Amino acid sequence: MRHDWRVGVLAAVLGLVSPAAGLEDVAEGGLAGAEAGFAPAAPDGRRSVLIRLAPSASLRGDRRAVADSLAADAGLDIEILRQFRYVPAVLVLAGETDIAALADDPRVDAIHAERVAFETLESAVPITQAPTMWTEGVEGQGRSIAVLDSGVDQSHPAFAGRIRDSACFGTPIAGFEDSFYSLCANGTTRDTESENAGDAALCEGFRQCEHGTLVSGAALGNSTSPLSQGVAREADLVVVQTKAGYTGDVCADGIRCRSGSISDLIAALEWLYDERDRLDLAAINMSVGFFRDDDGIGECDHPMEVIVRMLRDAGVAVTSANGNDGASTQGFPPCLPSTIDVGATDDFDRMATFSNNSSAVELLAPGVDLLLPVPTFYAESGYFTGAGTSAAAPMVAAAFTLLRQVQPRATTDQILTALQETGRQVFDVRLDHEGVPFNIERPRIKIADASTALETTFRFGPRLSAAVLPQMRSISPSPGADGVERDIGAGTATAFATLINSADYPARNCRITPPAFFTGQFSFTQTDPQTNAVVGAANTPVDIAAGGSASFVFAMTPDTAYSEMEMTLNFRCDGDFGAPSVAGVNRFVLSASGLGAPDLPAVAATLSGDGVVRGQVGGATAFAVSAVNIGADGALTVSVNDNGLTLPLSLEICPTNPSTGVCLEARAATTTQQLNNGDVGTYSVFVRADGDVAFLPARNRLRVEFRDAGGALRGSTSVAVRAD
């Protein structure tokens, strides 16, 4: 977002310039046809657009085929540029006539322009009450914050030893590959492997790469001086570069700048969703912005909302800077319903003169006269003073991180509510650009007070945990949803769930709901835990006594095809109390295919009988796994892993004789067997501990996976592991 930098730093250098300034410069640089915020038209006149597919056409594994069929049926000239894992859309390059034709096709739900944005803590941190949290030992340890921005100077001492991971998504604008180029370390448009994938040094000399460093510093920078310490000063940083370089002089004062696209942001968010457990991800900050049309029609109803909502439901807050135009309107992505929209206050705890504000702004944080880190190639000292909502938003991301540390069971919505209800209300007395008074109060964060409120909530409220068995089902979707007739004997996926309330207070009206992206029918029904017989009517909430539990069966009938879609189910009671989502415990993986597929409900049994594998350092132990194929015949490869945690464990598996338990072949990392419909496979997993493994049953787990010949997951189960 555009900044009001105070100490000689050009606004065009460290923030978004105005729509006119930034994109007129683009046109002058030779990219004719650029409109406010839109990706410029390619030399052949075609433009990049996001096609959001109608639900009946949103086949996750077949979106390219759907887009190809759209082009073939209508005789259109379109080029598919990008697909996404979760977001039901494809990025295409098409001419204006073809775009108009696509808009009228019933398989197309909406068309959104690809957009590009050209870039242009000292007294603040105490008023957020972060130092109060520090005195209690809460500094963000064990959690990470992802910053989607220009890259970060990873050698800066403010982040020493705390770079958890680094990635880059930098796709040149279609048709201008000679002018735009990737800034990724490996030279491709996507890099999630290189150690320095998001390093700002990759664009040294642009004077545009400091923005991500500044933003990261506000969130978690930890200098030796108390004048420049971020809110979550011991949290880890996930650096995500989301820009592409440009060879022309398009920014103010002849400074070369870079572009960032909406499709790259979506790809980055999807990657973070998949890696959230490995990264211990608490929050994501996007201090980026795209100007909307004058009327803004359709821009807030955008496919990006799908992945932002998935992250929010999974306990990861996505914060967004609301802009620095002193306006009462919202840009994109702040206007998405599931982002946490952040405005800025000044040194006197008033609304900053530059900050946008509206009823959609959810939280405020300091954003004026902040001493923040910058790459040393920009400022020899490594620090600069500046202002902007781009710095306020990461402070809020850090606040979520600290509160997640003290209340890991709290939902994103619970933390947001606590921050809103305990924040200092700041009344906006300014006039907007049209001279109309804002006349609105918004809360400036007070983290320690929010922590106290959450502690009270969880002390006197239910404490839910949840488990699901089996954790994976492969089925065929319901017929006719995509125009394909199928045998749907297994068109509904079912599994059992258990909810436990470990508090001294009852949980009221507890229910199960599917994730936001799921399309189809969903129902849950209480069961008798002894007989598994259904009790009562479907979709009827139940009360769970203090220290008690309830059993359910749930059913999912998708109306589209999915390939290995992880379902973060919502287990909630009145008051928005919810069970945390835990990989390998209560997440449900659904595979829905038009073709018959293996389907292996699997269970694991440990020596202790409590689902925990206990070992001694230098010693070995084992657990057993059994799975029955209730789907189509297939060759299944069985393996065991630690969910990417790199625990000090050696893992081997073998198929066993179900009667004797003896291995039928030598232990190995994997084993492959033909399992036909009705066949039962039994296995032994051998675990050797080469070091200590803490007892963290929600995190430190071993997962056994069954994959078909194409690599698709067809069954899984897990156990907790500890070693000392």
What's the structural blueprint in terms of helices and strands?
Elements: H1 19-28, E1 47-53, H2 63-74, E2 78-83, E3 89-94, H3 96-103, E4 108-113, E5 116-118, H4 124-127, H5 130-135, E6 144-149, E7 163-169, E8 180-182, E9 190-191, H6 210-220, E10 236-241, E11 244-246, E12 258-261, H7 262-279, E13 281-286, H8 304-313, E14 317-321, E15 340-345, E16 363-366, E17 370-373, E18 383-386, H9 389-406, H10 412-422, E19 424-428, E20 440-444, H11 447-459, E21 464-469, E22 472-475, E23 493-501, E24 507-513, E25 520-527, E26 534-535, E27 542-544, E28 549-558, E29 562-567, E30 570-573, E31 577-578, E32 588-592, E33 602-606, E34 612-615, E35 620-628, E36 634-641, E37 649-655, E38 670-675, E39 680-689, E40 701-707, E41 713-723
Parallel strand pairs: 6-10, 6-13, 7-10, 13-14, 14-15, 15-16, 22-32, 34-41
Antiparallel strand pairs: 1-3, 1-4, 2-3, 5-12, 7-9, 8-11, 11-12, 17-18, 19-20, 21-23, 23-28, 24-27, 24-30, 25-26, 25-28, 29-32, 30-31, 33-35, 35-39, 36-38, 36-40, 37-39, 40-41
Helix pairs in contact: 6-9, 7-8, 9-11, 10-11
